[in-house]
Amino acid sequence: MSIEVNQLTRLYGEQKAVDSISFHVNKGEIVGFLGPNGAGKSTTMKIITGYLQPDSGTTIVCGIDVQKEPLESKKKIGYLPEANPLYYDMYVREYLDFVADVHGVSDRKKRIEEVIEMVGLSLESKKKVGQLSKGYKQRVGLAAALIHDPEVLILDEPTTGLDPNQIVEIREVIKKLGQHKTVLFSSHILQEVEAICDRVVIINRGKLVANDTLSNLRTQSANSEVLKVSFRESLEPAWLERLSSVRAVNKLSTYEWELTCTDVQEAKRQLLELALQQNLNIVSLQSGGQSLEEVFRSLTNNQ
User: Fold this and answer.
1) What is the rounded distance in angstroms from the CA atom of residue 36 to the CA atom of residue 15?
2) 157-166 confidence digits (pLDDT tens)
3) Selection from 26, 6, 8 nearest residue 17 by Cα
4) Of 103, 124, 200, 254, which sits with the fewest C-beta atoms within 10 Å of its C-beta?
């Protein structure tokens, strides 16, 4: 295993940002690290890379204990943090040469050209970093994470600020890298996760709530289908929440609701009863299996 996280806990005052989570990532595996804002994703990534110390638990990268041997472990890791730190007064190649020198990269000139080509920076490579768009700044950060050819990549929101075409390009870069490197990356773009991940780890309020393949998560949620219902009138969410076959209620608009159900047929029957009792008119009623977005919401909405 390239990454091993064991009973990791991190406190900020009395708040547990990370609460006794454990998971692993194998070599050559691309794992999506998901969770709502404030779930503890960035804190966990900072601990894995050695930028933060945990209050308890251990992290092992390529067989090296990150807390005991932080410098050795950093040689194995390429890290793109959420807040991409760059020197805006440096030219792109100048900045990458600086980072390569810090890592002790041999034949720096050749390696710089390789990563510039890899992340699609060729046309902008003669500019100062500060002159680049947000998307190209993100590419510079990714190039810096790759410059020393690390075994493990930790990418915190790697496609932030990229346009749709750039997202596809960087997605292909990550997929290619995942053939021979270990990649752990966070993203709020769930379609992106579905496109490139072998497995997902989901945390919520510092706790691990899922760690499985996408197909398994959908299979496990097969008895927890989604029902979309539209009424002609507005109604109180508590009316829907009281239905015994409804696990979660999500308001889509004034008249539209999305219900996560344990028994979709029973939920339909109960909705019809509710409509009769409250003199409501159901305009439409649609059911279907759960997408990753729906699985994500069902795991993180009410915890």
Assistant:
1) 16
2) 888 778 888 8
3) 8
4) 254
